[in-house]
């Protein structure tokens, strides 16, 4: 923590504050990405795991990969483990994270008991539901514009060594979402409690729910860190397909191939896969390659050589009420040429809600994730803008980790503008941290 504070004091009084991070899971471009940032090198560890209270004290820049490595030996895991290994706990809380436990455990910030936050004024305050509660509730979805989490105390839950998976095939999106809704409401399928739930849409007539149940029963397990590819294993011709993974491999099942995005780098081609070192088959490797591609615009240069126009990046996660999910998916498939699509149901644990991402308590939502490019339109961000409008018409919300195009007025309405400004004035009175709209939409 001292290194962090020293780097803060070393900045000029008017300098904008950022974190110096070796990795990022944001997909927004920004003009000053190489600006000097705060030293976070001392904030990467798990401070303590308490098996009796089922809690962990964790430094804000600790990755979920390191956090899970520290908790699994105790038979424990965070309530929500986002899909990618290099996502940090502080990043998932100040941004948003989600995974297949979110239908029963909500979002990562909902399992935070307290956190120490470095505010824009240079103070470290402890925020909880009872202490600095305004900052505690405004922090999620503030993306570092109200402060940075230095230490977080989070809840953990018991986990068993294995996950038994059932991949249910559907020929109708209506049937898939109806089954998903029943599982979310009851917490079970065929009277068996469900621990994990997500889904993949390959086309209008081929989609799957992936239902996971923890088990201590030993037996053969699959390995999708080598030549086999997890998302391809989901596809089958029967009503159901069964699989088993260790709990460790289940939590990181999407990381090896960055869901399915590794295909863009050739990593799914059998020959390339044999030559690609196993240790580099992970999302962080693909992200670095994508950063190089974006810097030199390699994709658009290749499109130009083929006589085609540039492509628009459409990398988004949106939440729509489960009752509106089928309509949104049909619209998406008719208007946006991207597949597969990831589905992840969620429901807040908290009855009060969180002002900067105001999902309704007691309402079930479906996170719809899609990550690719489309032919560029007549205007900047045309497809992304259409998606934003459709999400709004669907009474949904869009995550802010990627490109956004909202007006200031619309942004304030959707993302708790009044609550944000009140917290901003109190905890960053000199505006040392960026404004959320400037960071998320104006891409500063």
The portion of residues assigned to helices is 25-40%
Cα-atom radius of gyration: 21 Å
The description of the largest β-sheet is: 8 strands, antiparallel
Mean pLDDT: 93
CATH architecture identity of the domain at 2-159 and 418-440: 2-Layer Sandwich
Identify the strand order in the major beta sheet: 14-9-13-12-16-17-15-18
CATH fold title of the domain at 2-159 and 418-440:
Uridine Diphospho-n-acetylenolpyruvylglucosamine Reductase, domain 3
> How many beta-strand runs?
18
What fraction strand?
Answer: 15-25%
Low-confidence runs (pLDDT<50, min 5 residues)?
A: none
Q: DSSP helix count?
A: 16
Taken from the alpha-carbon principal axes, the silhouette is globular
Strand-pairing-aware structural class: alpha+beta
Question: End-to-end span in angstroms?
Answer: 26 Å
CATH class of the domain at 2-159 and 418-440: Alpha Beta
Structural descriptors:
444 residues; alpha+beta; Uridine Diphospho-n-acetylenolpyruvylglucosamine Reductase, domain 3; Alpha-Beta Plaits; 6-stranded antiparallel β-sheet; 16 helices; 30% helix
């Amino acid at each position: 923590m001292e290194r962090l504070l020293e780097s803060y004091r070393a900045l000029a009084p008017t300098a904008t504050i950022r974190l110096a991070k070796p990795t990022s899971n944001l997909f927004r471009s920004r003009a000053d990405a190489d600006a000097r940032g705060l030293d976070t090198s001392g904030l990467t560890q798990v401070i303590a795991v308490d098996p009796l209270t089922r809690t962990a004290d964790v430094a804000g820049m600790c990755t979920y990969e390191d956090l899970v490595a520290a908790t699994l030996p105790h038979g424990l895991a965070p309530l929500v483990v986002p899909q990618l290994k290099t996502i940090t706990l502080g990043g998932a809380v100040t941004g948003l994270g989600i995974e297949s436990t979110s239908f029963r455990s909500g979002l990562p910030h909902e399992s935070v008991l307290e956190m120490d936050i470095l505010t824009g004024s240079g103070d470290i305050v402890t925020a909880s539901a009872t202490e600095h509660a305004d900052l505690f509730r405004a922090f999620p979805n503030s993306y570092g514009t109200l402060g940075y989490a230095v230490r977080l105390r989070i809840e953990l839950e018991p986990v068993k060594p294995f996950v038994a998976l059932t991949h249910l095939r559907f020929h109708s999106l209506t049937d898939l979402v109806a089954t998903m809704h029943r599982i979310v409401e009851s917490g079970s399928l065929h009277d068996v409690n469900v621990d994990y739930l997500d889904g993949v849409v390959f086309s209008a007539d081929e989609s799957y729910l992936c239902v996971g149940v923890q088990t201590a029963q030993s037996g053969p397990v699959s390995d999708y860190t080598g030549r086999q590819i997890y998302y391809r294993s989901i596809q089958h011709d029967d009503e159901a397909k069964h699989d088993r993974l260790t709990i460790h491999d289940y939590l990181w099942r999407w990381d090896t191939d960055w869901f399915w995005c590794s295909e863009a780098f050739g990593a799914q081609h059998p020959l390339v896969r044999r030559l690609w070192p196993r240790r580099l088959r992970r999302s962080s490797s693909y992200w670095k390659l994508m950063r190089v591609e974006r810097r030199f615009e390699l994709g658009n240069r290749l499109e130009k050589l083929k006589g085609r126009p540039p492509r628009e990046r459409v990398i988004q996660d949106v939440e729509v009420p489960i009752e509106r999910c089928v309509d949104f998916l049909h619209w998406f498939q008719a208007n946006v040429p991207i597949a597969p699509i990831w589905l992840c149901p969620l429901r807040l644990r908290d009855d009060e809600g969180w002002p900067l991402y105001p999902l309704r308590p007691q309402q079930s939502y479906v996170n719809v994730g899609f990550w690719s490019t489309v032919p560029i339109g007549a205007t900047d961000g045309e497809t992304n803008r259409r998606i934003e409008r459709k999400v709004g018409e669907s009474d949904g919300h869009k995550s802010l980790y990627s490109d956004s195009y909202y007006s200031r007025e619309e942004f304030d309405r959707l993302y708790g503008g009044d609550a944000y400004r009140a917290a901003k004035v109190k905890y960053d009175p000199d505006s040392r941290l960026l404004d959320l709209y400037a960071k998320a939409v104006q891409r500063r």
